Amino acid sequence: MADIHQLNGNLYRALMEKNPKDVLGFLPVDEGPLHKITIHKDTVLHMACYSKQCDLALELLQLLPPSLNQRFANSKNDVDNTILHEVATYNAMTDVATEILNRAPELLTARNILGETPLFRAVRYGKDEMFKLLAEKLDRMDFETEEDRKACLRRNDGTTILHISVFTENFDLALLIAERYGDLISAWDSNQMTALQHLACNPSAFLSGCEHGHLRRFIYSCISNKARGGRCQDLKSVAKSRFRWPIWEALLEEKHRYDAARELASKLLESDTSWEATNPQAVDRGSISVQEKGGDSSVSSKEKAKVDPSIALQHPDEKKGKTSPEVNRTRFNNIRNKETPLFLATMSGIPEIVDEILKKYPQAIEHYNDQGRNILHVAINYRQIEIFDRVVKMEMPARRLLRATDAKGNSILHMVGKKGKRYVSRKSRSPAIQLQEELLLFERVKEYSKSHFLKVFNHNNQTADELFASNYCELHEEAKEWLKRTAENCTIVAVLIATVAFAAAYTIPGGPNQSTGIPLLLSQPFFVVFTLADVISLTYALTSVITFLSILTSPFQLQDFKKSLLRKLMLGFTFLILSVSMMMVAFAATIILMIHNKERWTKIVLYSVAFLPVIIFALSYSPLYYRLLKACTGLLNLALELCPRCTCVSPPSWTTKFFNRRESKPNRFQSQTFSSKCPSIFQTTYSSV
After folding, report:
1. Can you tell me the distance from the alpha carbon of 186 to that of 268, in angstroms, rounded to the nearest whole number?
2. CB of 422 within 8 A of CB of 678?
């Protein structure tokens, strides 16, 4: 026993050190390459393939006599992986795979403990060259039925090779699979979902789901749209060149991945007709309830009825008329909780897929799910306002969709007061800004709603305003506490700055003349700079104190968070930053007055040091200030409206486009993510006054 352990240890060490000479020297005579050396029952040949030693694997195969071919075919480790399973995970071992299949072609259909064939395993690890080889061999094999051939493309849990390629984000390989095995496009996994549905749940696979900084966004825009061959040549040239730019290479690869995902989505959409399985009862659901509080809901019996389970969701592979109502009923019940790719892409915030679906099938916009909701309900529920904007531009169908209510009587305005269960914030935002964004969204959707829909009661006897107020009560309290705490802290800082500025006015640099009281350095230019900066600093500090006090004395009503409170906070921050800046200017002027006869470089150093606190202060508060600035752009429009205008000369086109945002609908929100990559609180820029 000790001799066997020592032998296995020597073989294992030689394999890990990639020493083929020692491996061949330690091989036992009777078992040869099929000798098991690990506790998981891996043979020497398993480990040679696992460690990607192609030459050694080929040499070991040559050592196998024909008498061991049957044992070779049955050689598996404790998870039932054959030697071909290990070879399939490496593109460079296609020669080894060919030699193995020449000896034991039945290994092509062998399954491991998960039910994965070598072909499935190659796809799982994204090995396109190995996939092409094994797929070609599989297509040439003779099977008793076509179902036996298809079974090699699926593992025990129902996941197909197309599903797994989408899961692992190998979109180039997924496109090859979709083109070669078109019947897999409409195949379901164990969760009754197609590959397109899974792709529609992955916003990070598309450009709309990425978050680039300013530098990365600029570099990304400089990458031209090239063909795949051009991309490969670019990558090869970058790899061969001595100069490397990692960020360029990363963005080039990222751009290719986004393009491949979009091309895959377009291919998968060719066979998708899931939007045809709509809820017909939702189309006519337009009766509205406007009773007084406490009254019974005037919902028709048709609206109260449950969705008829006889509405068949036929599998795309099957022709009409070949399935019984019982089978269709079962399928409807199985996927009633699953959404179509159109709605999944809307939830995830993937306008690329939504655009492709509506481009190929514009009538898909009429789809209603089993909850009676259309695409506008879903877009608002998951705060995908970019998609909402695109749909409402389709004027004719939008009229019907805008006035629809779901199975619970909720209009699109009600949906503003609701959030999807899988809705989470991807970015950390202050509660006040979150609440303002929700209030602005409510006003925005109200613009699209007809006047008689504003007081619609849902089945819980709530109007949209009441539903919004009840669901955002907690956020309202959080925003109130955050705003109070912020205003109190800033007030303390502003009072301290005002105190320093006031004291500086009575301790002027150089001091006064003892007989006349006139400052000794009054004739110096920097004394004027000191005086002006100190007065301005004191003025701004006191103004910011008054602004913050007005916030603290506010009633903090819900509607106050829409405009007034955040405008006051932004003004207070602005005056506070200006006050700090002027105080440091006064400090710098004082130092210069005291050492006015020093060298020039000394003054430069003093300027730099004096403004260091201002820079740090500005950088610390810049994220919050930036959000406040975006949330309060209405102030700019208000200022422009108060200014006189000359109408005799037409303004430049870019100024008209920038300042007349209020003429059009409010700006769109940025889309976000969902589920494990859920949509976050949207970012918005409003210009309402």
Report:
1. 8
2. yes
Amino acid identity for residue 212 in this structure:
H
What kind of fold does domain 2-156 have according to CATH?
A: 1.25.40
SS (H, E, C) 153-189: CECCCCCEHHHHHHHCCCHHHHHHHHHHCHHHCCCCC
The phi, psi pair for 486, rounded to 5°, reads -65, -45
CATH class of residue range 484-632:
mainly alpha
Write the pLDDT tens digit of every residue in 293-327. 444 444 443 343 333 333 222 333 333 344 444 44
pTM: 0.75
The pLDDT of residue 246: 77
Tokens read off for 527: 């004394």
Which tokens in the block code for residue 586?
């006064």
Q: What is the DSSP letter of 152?
A: T
Taking alpha carbons only, the member of 314, 385, 332 closest to residue 354 is: 385
The amino acid that residue 562 corresponds to is K
Helix (H, G, I), strand (E, B) or coil at 159: coil
- Residue 638: predicted pLDDT: 55
Interior CA angle at 271 toward 268 and 272, to 5°? Answer: 85
Q: How far apart are CA 321 and CA 605, in angstroms?
A: 86
Biggest alpha carbon–alpha carbon distance for the chain: 120
Task: Name which of 195, 85, 162 is nearest 130 in CA terms.
Answer: 85
Fold match between domain 2-156 and domain 484-632 = no
d(CA 402, CA 14): 71
Q: Which residue numbers in the chain have pLDDT < 70?
A: 1-2, 213-214, 224-244, 279-337, 420-428, 451-452, 509-514, 517, 519-523, 596-611, 614, 617-618, 621-689
Residue-wise pLDDT tens digits, 100-124: 999 999 999 999 999 999 999 999 9
Residue type, 528: V
Which 8-state DSSP code applies to residue 280?
H
Alpha helices in 522-563 (DSSP H): 525-552
Closest CA to 519 of 534, 533, 540, 505: 505
Alpha carbons 58 and 43: distance in angstroms, whole number: 15
For the record, the structure tokens of 257 come out as 């991945």
Phi-psi region of 19 (alpha: psi -120 to 50; beta: other; left: phi over 0): beta
* Domain extent listing, the chain: 2-156, 484-632
For position 312, what pLDDT does the model report? 29
Instruction: Write down the residue that tokens 């290990």 correspond to.
Output: 86
